[in-house]
UniProtKB/TrEMBL annotation, chains A, B, C, D:
Keywords: Membrane, Transmembrane, Transmembrane helix. One of its GO terms (cellular component) is membrane. It is a multi-pass membrane protein. This is Transmembrane protein 45a. PANTHER family: EPIDIDYMAL MEMBRANE PROTEIN E9-RELATED, TRANSMEMBRANE PROTEIN 45A. Belongs to the TMEM45 family. InterPro entries: DUF716, TMEM45. The chain crosses the membrane at residues 12-30, 51-74, 94-115, 127-145, 157-174, 186-206, 226-248. It is found in: Membrane.
Length: 277, 277, 277, 277
């Protein structure tokens, strides 16, 4: 994964995930707030569930693809872990990246089970997500031995986003549905995504001059640049949240709210059923 | 910003902010506690809102001024980031300070939107404040490379106040209106403000002898001095809180509370409306 | 304890404890969820109490055995702490391990008292457990002086599980009965157990070649290996939780739920009595 | 304060405080649990308040004495801070210790105001206590420059107790009256007290041979010794809690509970009044 593509790819995934989560949570908040205007059709509890299932299935699929790509793409270890002849480990980088995908796959699988059956407590989906992010940060943390100053620094900055996201997901176990935490998680996911791209541009500039990886003023610039990414992620989440809110409100105004009486009893039952741990 | 003025200026802002917040939160607590004496006129929910809007607008204005000053004041980078000819970054210090102002500006803008419209959840204003303080600490943290012992130490002590304040603001997301947390935040803001002045006096003494920046006994004195600033901030907040409480109570005693029956229904509606996340 | 057995033994204990806790908490959750199907017979509050008492007694017994084994097994210090003649401490390793057992013994004793009498607040059993795990991590943390790179690293990884478990147990003081936290504790206990075995295999390979304890690629492999242990522990807990749920549900279906009316009043009384702090 | 007495004195204060707090909280819990047996006479809300006031006054008095002793006892700085002639700080150690006392004095004064007037929110007494302990740890943390290995280590271990206690007191802001946290605070206070004595014995042995302050096996023993102090503190708190519970219960059994009907209304009013923040 030591390449521009190797950083752009996960970056893109996190960007898509961050945007999607922002839309999802904004939509749910908007419909919750406009309940008395008949919005329940747009996001009833059962359609929410369906959405979660689709999301989990997609995440599971991409995690599997990621794992297989790390193993079988040009130069992958093909599930060989130790070269007994040469007495060295086979391509530990690829194995470590595959391990990160594995945990996101586990989180997706757990979420799938939680939202299709009721065998597991609902809050578990946030816990497995927190564990997946923690594991990503954990592996990155021990990943940096013997690299150059700037290389270590850009990855350390990434850890702020990763461990921050693990913490937020863990807090959501206790404060499920707290929209502030949800939007913070979206922000940190976007930050992670755009920062992966930035790492790619810094360490493997596709064109233009190389960066001096041991220059301290580069370190100082990159630190500030991380703040800018954070500000951009905050602005992006705000804009998207605002746009979704407007769209939901305008669509609701055009539909007559008179069917509300019919919808309510149908909708309340699944909700209360669902909130039982 | 490596000058006495460069530390005294943000110090003064934080001092003003800390005093103002103490007055605001003390006022609100006093009126909440004296509700049955007709105090609702002094701080009804709508006047609270107006206050928040004015405060946010002022904070936004000063953040913009700060950013522009860092860019255009004598020797500023004037939005040039990289000197391609000389192959070095332009005045990273100024850019970093402008980035700090940017986040306080974002927090103020978010607070403005939250308190004028109801597009965003109320608790978000504390989260963006927490992010702004976190960003300040984050940039300071990576700001200290290659400085002398005492210089590093006084800035590290500042981080206790900054990160402490970020943490308190984050806790307020979940415990909004908890007066203990609010007063703690006021204390830490005052501490930050007075400590900025102290840093100015230590590193750029306006008159008198220079400090030996590598003497360990100076480090020990400065540590203790930070404790004294904390104690002073606590005393200042206590005194102000007590004064405001007394003023509110004495003013309420002089006004007949008979209009209470009229005020109550008008006042309860906005309150309950507002507390919906 | 510097031997393969010395790591396999505590590892086995933690594995058994992790599996047992998973069964216990899954059983209680399953019966709680199926209350309206007459499941209260399977896990009434009084039988829960009896289970806790038996568990605590067993833990107390094994802690005592562990302490005595560390003192009197071949080469133990036999309660001699300081060799005044040779001017050195006697076998500090054994004393340290005995101290770890002591805290688990204290936790078990406290749990025994809490569940047999009502002299102590219920939540205390989680606190003493948290203290026992904290103490284990605390002693390990200062245990690693002057060892080789890999030796230090495998023990540091263990600390993630140990301190993580201390934190989870402490959170349970405030969120008692939160099944997500309980399952996380089970997972971390299993992780600790299997990692003790792994440490044994790495540091004292019973057969096969020795590991190079100063090779950095071994460190990187071992880090990833810890993630795999975590994933395995998560899968094991999930499988066991699912199996227990299925068994409880199928057994309940075969029993007529008509006696429920009789059971309920008898069962509610102890429950409410118990929940008084 | 670099002497045996200088450590034994604060140690004794913390031991007394820890024992006293254990008795106080155990008494309150016992009376709360036995409310329906007429125990309200033993610990009504107003007598609780009186107790808090006396305790705060005593703490304030001893803090003042401590501060003055540090300043004026043989060789104290007598409020001279800087020796302009010799260009060095005067006796920073004494000043630092006086600063620690100052914060405990502030905490006591705040508690006094909180429990005699209702100007300040009730939870503030825990916050100022947390700040006092944090300040103690903060000053100790920067206190250890250039000392020998064992000297640094025994003071670092003290920080676990001090910062732990600061954290527990801060948590009590949100979980006031949680008996588990209260007993944990008592335990950590006792631990701190007995560890001060231990530091005195290690660094300034009143008789017998000196310790080798750079021997690593001494470090390992001392670490374990800290665990033993913790275990002893837990046992002491448990024993005292149990004894107080027994005494309260036996005294209540001898008094007829018939006056309960009279006491209840008088007692509930102050309680509800008090719990308003």
């Amino acid at each position: 994964m030591g390449s521009f593509k190797g950083h752009a790819l996960p970056g893109s995934f996190f960007l898509v995930a961050g945007l999607w989560w922002t839309v999802k949570f904004s939509l749910w908040r908007a419909t919750r707030r406009n309940k008395n205007m008949g919005s329940t059709r747009l996001a009833s509890r059962s359609s929410q569930r369906r959405l979660e299932v689709i999301e989990s299935a997609a995440a599971l699929f991409f995690s599997l693809v990621g794992m297989l790509a790390e193993q079988f793409a040009a130069g992958g270890p093909r599930f060989r872990l130790y070269d007994a002849a040469g007495k060295h480990w086979e391509l530990l980088m690829n194995w470590q990246h595959a391990t990160m995908y594995l945990f996101f796959g586990l989180a997706a699988a757990a979420s799938l089970v939680i939202h299709t059956t009721d065998a597991a407590p609902l809050a578990l989906d946030r816990l497995v997500l927190a564990v997946a992010f923690f594991n990503e940060g954990f592996i990155f943390f021990y990943h940096l031995h013997g690299r150059s100053l700037l290389d270590v620094h850009v990855h350390q900055l990434l850890l702020y986003a990763v461990f921050g996201e693990a913490l937020v997901a863990f807090l959501e176990v206790f404060h499920r549905g707290n929209v502030v935490l949800e939007l913070l998680r979206c922000t940190l996911t976007l930050l992670q995504g755009s920062w992966f791209w930035q790492i790619g541009f810094v360490l493997y500039p596709p064109r233009g001059p190389e960066w001096d990886l041991d220059d301290h003023s580069n370190v100082m610039f990159v630190t500030m640049c991380f703040s800018w990414h954070l500000a951009s992620a905050m602005l992006a989440v705000s804009a998207l949240h605002w746009a979704v809110s407007c769209v939901v409100r305008s669509r609701l105004r055009r539909t007559p709210p008179m069917e509300m009486g019919l919808l309510k009893p149908r909708d309340q039952d699944p909700e209360s059923e669902d909130e039982v741990l």
